[in-house]
Automatic annotation (TrEMBL):
Pfam families: Glyco_hydro_16
The organism of origin for this protein: Nocardioides agariphilus
Protein name: Family 16 glycosylhydrolase
Domain of life, per lineage: Bacteria
Signal peptide from the UniProt entry: none
Residue ranges annotated for the GH16 domain, each copy included: 120-388
Amino acid sequence: MRTGRWVLVGLLVAALVGGGAYAYLGYVRKAQQTVTAQLLPGIAQPGADPASSDKAVGLVVATVEPADEGRPVHLQTRSGAGWESQAVAEQDADGNVEFLLERGGLDAGRSYRVVSLGDGDSAEATSPVLSGDEWGRPDFEDEFDRDTLGDQWLNRGEDYNVEGLRACSKGSGDAVAVGGGTLQLSVLLDPARADERCSPRNGKGDLIGSYRYRLNGHVMPNAHYFRYGVLAARIKFQKMQGQHASLWMQPAISESTTDSATGGAEIDVIEWFGEGTANGGLTTFIYKLSEDGPVKVGDFIADPDSFLTGQDDSWYDRYHVFSVEWTSQAYIFRIDGKETWRTSEGISHQPEYPILSLLSSDYELRKLPDPGDLPQTMHVDWVRFWEA
């Protein structure tokens, strides 16, 4: 009886241990990766010359969970009845990867998926299939392939604005031109006030100099706006400081002064302050509404030269595509498809419209004191938005 008891106990222990081991191994086998992926429209097109926006390349972005920094992820494209690998990228610390598509990658009939291969700890995971043409044609686009701006654009800010700290400059159609396939926005001297001098004050009321009056290129679409989606523009900036070039957005409808969800937000997709500016000269901001007024969120883009294509590239000699992906949860900013920053603050749920401008605010005028350096000009090759 004593021997039989120990045999029985031994069998019970073996069963329990074996069952636990099996449960543990089953848990390991069931540890799953997940891959979410999305396709973005043509938002990458660096280059020296104007070019058709239809030749801009799209992007597939994906997130793998759980994240495994440095682990390779594959972009596959459909080939007949199967799939073949088109590119490989490594996860960042958050499990994110980006794939620039080949030219023609947004054509109808192209299909993609993102695959994270399995290993000893996790099974292979595959994203849902993405269609290359899922964004379709833009809801708004302008290639500026004519000789005038046309009636689908309006000039903005056509008064000198002391309260807005632009006492010495105003928007004017005289600072706007179209030709050679681009929109040209300039800062130039105001010929109507050539014999006058402007003495602006800073926010504290202190005089900050004496300058010539200036005209600025400052335009917006005429009744074209969207809520959620992607806005992109291909831009070559001016070279010098003393003015800042911008692609930005303002709400078409505002129903609150304290909440961006209903009041909208100013979204500064990109600003360029000129060659030699500290921290690289490129910024991205949003202004979210609050009980205490608009709150500025954002900063200079870190290591901006990493978004250039090489040593011969620059923000004022070549074109680059600046974009924002706007969802109900986040703003995601990119240069030629590469993410620069994202935020979930101040999300607007109102329709917004894009603005293109080259503005000389009073605080900048000291950086371009010689009128002989004017005009300064930014060139916009094209602008598009797709509503989600």
